[in-house]
Design brief:
The chain is of the alpha+beta class. The chain folds into 2 domains: 126 residues, no CATH class; 118 residues, no CATH class. 56% of the residues lie in helices and 9% in strands. The chain has 10 helices and 4 strands. A 4-stranded antiparallel sheet has the order 1-2-3-4. The protein is elongated, with a radius of gyration of 24 Å.
Length: 274
């Protein structure tokens, strides 16, 4: 068996092994790109407010925090918060309870709710149950197929397999000579159905390979420490761990345990930006 035939077999089986998972990850990734725009359009009354005046200042961050905590309930402490410099945005506060690594509906997410608060009045504009929110599910499918650590493993290694498939495809595409090179960059539209299908796969595949590699490799930084450290080292001369960056999709980082200090720092930061 020649080298190219061996690579061809490898290309075929790598594609079969990773194709469905990569397709699911790609579709969910494309959907999630527009998460903010669609979410804000659908929930406009929750996420946007009208400032009382052009010179109006928001309430102290700790006051808005307390309003959100009251709305969510004392038994569901705030886990994550967003405050905005934009004067027409409600601030959001999220509570989370679950066990990272378990399947999404099997314990990974028991409680996931967000309260939106008008920062000028302290009025709660609404509460969303993020556990069943469309884009939260899209993101979780993208990360781990709703299967927790097992799904994350499948997604990670399917993406790695996809990278190897792209490289093998480039090897197969590489022309033998100058005459063959001319044919590699264009599609012969008047060819038979089988040849047209081959040209489309061969030519279009070449043009999207670089983009696909960038997307896949950047995705792998969330999956493997060695990829993340390699990218960080190439960019900065230091590994990600040297900068304190460890852990990918699975790790959830909560709010500071020293809440008064965290709130004070947030209030000072907001004051400096106004």
């Amino acid at each position: 068996m020649t080298f190219k035939k061996l690579v061809g077999k490898l290309h075929l089986w790598l594609g079969l092994a990773s194709g469905l998972i990569v397709f699911i990850v790609s579709i969910t990734g494309c959907l999630y790109v527009f998460q903010r725009e669609i979410f804000e359009a659908v929930h406009r009354d929750l996420v946007f407010v009208t400032p009382p005046s052009a010179a109006a200042q928001p309430l102290p961050y700790s006051v808005v925090w307390q309003k959100a905590q009251q709305a969510l309930g004392a038994d569901q402490p705030i886990y994550y918060a967003n405050a905005y410099r934009a004067p027409d945005r409600a601030w959001s506060f999220m509570t989370y309870k679950g066990t990272p690594g378990k399947p999404y509906f099997g314990g990974q997410v028991e409680v996931l709710r967000s309260a939106y608060v008008n920062p000028y009045t302290g009025q709660v504009t609404g509460i969303i149950d993020n556990k069943y929110e469309f884009f939260q599910l899209v993101k979780s499918v993208h990360w781990d197929l709703l299967l927790g650590d097992a799904g994350r493993w499948v997604v990670s290694y399917s993406t790695l397999t996809f990278v190897l498939m792209l490289v093998s495809g480039l090897v197969l595409w590489w022309p033998k000579n100058k005459a063959a090179r001319k044919q590699r960059f264009k599609v012969k539209w008047d060819a038979s159905g089988k040849r047209l299908n081959y040209d489309l796969h061969n030519t279009v595949g070449f043009y999207v390979t670089l983009v696909s590699l960038v997307i896949a490799l950047t995705g792998l930084t969330w999956s493997f420490d060695w990829v993340r450290n390699g990218v960080a080292y190439l960019a900065t001369g230091h590994t990600a761990e040297a900068h304190g960056g460890k852990g990918g999709k699975g790790g959830k980082k909560g709010m500071s345990k020293d809440k008064p200090v965290a709130l004070g720092a947030a209030e000072q930061a907001l004051a400096n930006q106004t």
